[in-house]
Automatic annotation (TrEMBL):
InterPro entries: MlaA. The lineage of its organism: Bacteria, Pseudomonadati, Pseudomonadota, Gammaproteobacteria, Oceanospirillales. Residues 1-22 form the signal peptide. Residues 230-250 are annotated as: Disordered. One of its GO terms (biological process) is intermembrane phospholipid transfer. Keywords: Lipoprotein, Signal. GO terms for cellular component: membrane. Belongs to the MlaA family. This is Putative phospholipid-binding lipoprotein MlaA. Pfam families: MlaA. PANTHER family: INTERMEMBRANE PHOSPHOLIPID TRANSPORT SYSTEM LIPOPROTEIN MLAA, LIPOPROTEIN VACJ-RELATED. It comes from the Bacteria. The keyword Signal applies. The keyword Acetylation does not apply.
Amino acid sequence: MKQFLTRWIGRGALAVSLVATAGCAASGEVQERNPDDPWEGFNRKVFAFNDVIDRYALKPVAKGYRFITPDPVEAGVGNFFSNLGEPRTALNSLLQGKGSNASIATGRFLINTTIGLGGLFDVATPLEITGREEDFGQTLGAWGAGEGAYLVLPLLGPSTVRDTAGLPVDMVTYPTTYVEDDEVRMGLTALRVIDTRAGLLDQEKMIRGDRYSFIRDTYLQQRRFEVSDGEMGEDPFASDEFDFDDADFDDAFAE
């Protein structure tokens, strides 16, 4: 889900934010207690709060953005913000002792920034220069820090105690943080949030059953997969279980 439900959206403070809800409504029923989610009562309330903001503010704007923005332009915007995340990947790869991945991230950033016209075009991927994305939450995991309890943050969405501790470092390692002009910085942040949310509109069909539990479980599975570099099993989004057609989407969101 463009790595939402999982780590979406590059994890930049506000950018991770409302996307976390993916337009989902909170369920009124609390399922059997999950040992990974000891604060479920609190988390469901925050989830519902995030959903209201997404439902009445972010999602309508994202739909309008998708409607008026040509596909090539939307792809370019996504590439641009993704490219800005490469320095963070390079730094965290070095902190984890993954020199090869750090080199790949650095190479991707240089190639896409220059040949790709500031990152608007992803030139590196067709050249098969690809690696794993890394953030400070993954670095803490590589250093042996436990993930802690599942936690839903206001506006920031699904997280864990460990990932929450890593957010400040993720924020300061994202280039737009250092844009001095407040209006430009806020504009870029807003565009990043809207573009990311628009990219999730087609992915909401993946959500089934109790939406809160679905998002929690897929988030935790994907984060564990990423922290272990895939050693704990298959990518939960690589399964045929997540391959739905348009009819499935219509049925799931016909309410």
